[in-house]
């Protein structure tokens, strides 16, 4: 009977020596797991900071950043580029993808895209986007992310 009472007391949070030892071990395990997670995240955070630095110091990003700054110096140009990209995206991803609409869009923006500032910016932006996509693809492939 005493043993049954002790089990009942333990299950109800009773403070017997055995349950305290179990709780202390459990708390130590939790603290150990939390420390391991923090150390692991610190490693990931540190590697991420290094990756960001590498991206910011890459020739691809530097060219993109320089072109972006040039575009921003021209009043209204950034907004026109944004509108061009928005319409292009809608045409490429819309449910009614039609070649005649795409041809009309190309004709409408032909002169705009001939502007060296616009064409250079779009080319460097595309190169930068492809670099970021490649990084993402390589990371997800390496960790077998499905």
Main features:
mainly alpha, 2 domains, 146 residues
What does this structure look like?
- It contains seven helices and no strands.
- The chain is mainly α.
- It has two domains: 2-46; 58-142, no CATH class.
- Helix 3 (59-73) runs antiparallel to helix 7 (116-142).
- It is elongated and about 75 Å long.
- It starts with a helix and ends with a helix.
- The model has no long low-confidence stretch (mean pLDDT 83).
Question: Helical amount among residues, as a percent range?
Answer: over 70%
CA-to-CA gap between the ends? Answer: 55 Å
Give the percentage of residues in beta strands.
Answer: under 5%
The number of strands is 0
Largest sheet: none
Number of domains: 2
> What class would the helix/strand composition place it in?
mainly alpha
> Over the alpha carbons, how many angstroms does the gyration radius reach?
29 Å
Q: Uncertain segments of ≥5 residues (pLDDT<50)?
A: none
Gross morphology is elongated
Series of secondary-structure elements, N-terminal to C-terminal? HHHHHHH
Average of the residue pLDDT scores = 83
Tally of separate helices: 7
Fold topology:
Elements: H1 2-11, H2 17-56, H3 59-73, H4 77-93, H5 99-108, H6 110-114, H7 116-142
Helix pairs in contact: 3-7
Structure described in brief:
This protein is an all-alpha fold and 146 residues long. 85% of the residues lie in helices and 0% in strands.
């Amino acid at each position: 009977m005493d043993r049954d009472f002790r089990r009942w007391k333990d299950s109800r949070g009773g403070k017997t020596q055995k349950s305290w030892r179990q709780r202390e071990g459990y708390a130590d395990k939790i603290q150990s797991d939390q420390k391991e997670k923090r150390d692991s995240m610190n490693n990931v955070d540190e590697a991420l900071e290094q990756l960001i630095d590498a991206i910011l110091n890459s020739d691809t990003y530097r060219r993109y950043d320089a072109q972006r700054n040039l575009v921003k110096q021209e009043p209204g140009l950034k907004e026109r580029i944004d509108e061009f990209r928005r319409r292009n995206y809608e045409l490429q991803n819309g449910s009614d993808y039609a070649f005649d609409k795409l041809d009309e869009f190309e004709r409408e923006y032909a002169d705009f895209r001939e502007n060296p500032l616009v064409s250079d910016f779009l080319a460097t932006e595309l190169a930068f986007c492809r670099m970021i996509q490649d990084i993402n693809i390589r990371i997800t492939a390496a960790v077998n992310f499905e």
